[in-house]
Amino acid sequence: MWQKVNTLCIAGITLWLGVVVDAAADEPMVAPLVDATNAKQASMMVESWLMAGQVPPLEQLQDKAVAVRGLVGACVTLRSSGIMVGRGDALRDDLNTTDEPMDLTVLMQRATIAAFESLQRSLLDADLRSVIEGRAIAAPPRLSIKDVAGRVNVDVQLAYNLEPIRLSPNDSPQRIYSRFAPDYHGLLAEDDHGRRAMIWPANALAENTSPTSQLVQLAARLDRPAQDARTLGLPNGPKLWRFEVYHLLPPVQGASFLQLVRGNIALQPLALNEQALMDMAQTMAAHLQQRFTANGQVRGTYHPSSGRYDPLLAEPNQALLAAYALTRYVHQQRQLRPDDRLLAEINRQAQDLAVRLEQSVEDGTLAPDPATCALIMLTAIDNPVAPRHTDVRDRMLQRLLELLRDDGSFHTSTAAEASPVNDSVQALAVAALSAAYAQTRRSDLVDPLRRALDRLWDQTRGNPNINALPWLAFAQERVGELLADDQTHIAQKKQRDATLGELVRMLLGQQVVDPPRVGPKDVIGGFELSTGPIDSPPNPNWTSAPLLCFLSIATRHPQISGHDELGWLLSAALSARFLRQLQFDRPGCFYVRSPQETVGGIRLALWDNRLTLDATAMSLLAVTDLQETLAQFR
Asked: Helices then strands (H, E): number in the chain?
């Protein structure tokens, strides 16, 4: 009996399920939202068409349809040796129907046709032809797209998440910059005549186009004057949207696809571990070392987008900062690798530069300003094979003392009318003076050092200069205990340590630790010192490096940290994570002329790819200081 009932029940359930299945079969399939997998599909399409040398007509692509929702447009960029040789894009016709399914294949076909037409025009350019062919002299214009396919890399961006940017006439002109994250968001404008203009984020990064220039370019592409960029997004101006992209490309021909965010692989928003810090420092040191020329000079700011140095040679103080950063790095690494020949060569280059510039100061060809004297001194003092250059230290020390006035201020020269230096140079000079005193214990340095340190504290009270903070902490670390020789100075040291601790706590309140409301997570760990509207994307930059340096030094001292060392260490390692996000690696060199001169450098900002000596040198100093702090607590 029960067996019969069970059989009937099962049959009934099966019948009911069959009805449901049949009903579901009649429902139209819902297209999925566009995602990174679709970007990979799109890239593979373009690569196959590139190898074939042509884009198939639509009738041949009907069985390859890929329906997706949320797709706004596509951009195909073709590059050879970092140089753009072709570009094309395509948008969906109706921007109000992005939730409707669209065939990705059709969109990619349109964008790729435009890119191939652009590439074909490039093949007629003798200079670009020579790059693509790898020849020193351009050949006659006979090549087809298929002929050069092996030397061309595909770079695909798929646009999604289109959001309007609407501004009020009462908004300040700067308000628009709080509505998009440069080089993460693309921009799309449309005028009353239906004309459209776009800024694709990866292309803006590759061309190093500033946010202001992006807006000006949008206006120009709508045939409007530059001043009309101020009307974008306003009720009486062109409509404006921001969008995000899936940006995929292979770093080299035939490699697997990588997804990039603002030109780099997005790191997990976590503090860096010791191995990651070691790798980061090593690549920064290698980058700085390759800036040294055969005759001991140092190259200036490198522009990866154009493959040139401008200026060709760095200012002496920038070169000396790089030399000092390398010296500190070598000093630390020699404890782990005492016989490493590369470290010895790096140290030799740094010390040779310091000696050469010291001789230039002595013979009068280089002005003995406080920053120059201080950096030469510090490089000599931290030389891991000291006392080879103690004579250099002593001569520069004497020069530095000559620039010190009775009130404790350093001046730009010994002339009576010379002006006092700014806070950051005062701090640098005090740091060098403190390092000399800590190394020599010369009693005649006590009074000048105290006067200079007091002056520095007076200058930085209430409104400290970012670039002064690491040198102030450096000086306090080297001589704090040495100068606390009576009750008055002991109390003074306690008060100053407490002040440094409060500065760190204030600084940590400015660190980006949570995912932002707008924009990507690549900003996590950076210090955002300017306050914008609550919905604006954070915009930290390389100045997080001196702040990390300051934080790392302060963490080593319980009298400063108040025994918050663990929390401060985690904050410091998270800050290093942000600097690592600023650092060029191989995947980020997709548009770079010379990866050798780029990898390891620290960009000025996530949207500014220029490589200055200051940014990389201070970042190397910061990571070196953090490693020393971690070693203390190991």
From this structure: 20, 11
CA distances from 163 to 95, 166, 247 (A): 10, 10, 18
Cross-strand bridge partners of residue 186: 243
Please compute the mean of the pLDDT values over residues 399-405 and round it to a whole number.
98
DSSP string, 361-388: HHTTSS---HHHHHHHHHHHHT-TTTTT
Give 538's contacts (C-beta < 8 A, 6+ positions apart). Answer: 512, 516, 519, 523, 526, 528
Which CA distances in Å does 393 have to 58, 216, 354, 389, 433? 74, 51, 10, 6, 10
Q: Which helix (H) or strand (E) holds 113?
A: helix 104-122
Please tell me the chain's helix, strand, coil percentages from 3-state DSSP, rounded to the nearest 5.
55, 15, 35
- At 273, list the tokens: 């571990």
Query: Exposure of 585 by Cβ count < 10 A (0-12 exposed, 13-18 middle, 19+ buried)?
Result: middle
pLDDT at 498 exceeding the cut of 90: yes
256: DSSP letter: P
- Distance from C-alpha of 620 to C-alpha of 624, rounded to nearest angstrom: 6
Phi, then psi, of 78 in degrees rounded to 5:
-110, 130
Find the helix or strand (DSSP H, E) in which 553 lies. helix 544-555
* pLDDT above 80 for 582: yes
- Minimal CA–CA distance to 425: which of 398, 448, 455? 455
| Two structure tokens written together for 493 | 């040291």
Q: What's residue 463's pLDDT?
A: 78
Give the pTM.
0.91
Measured distance CA(43)–CA(260) in Å, rounded: 14
- Residue 153, H or E segment: strand 153-164
Distance CA(624)–CA(331), nearest Å, equals: 10
CA distance 612 to 288: 10
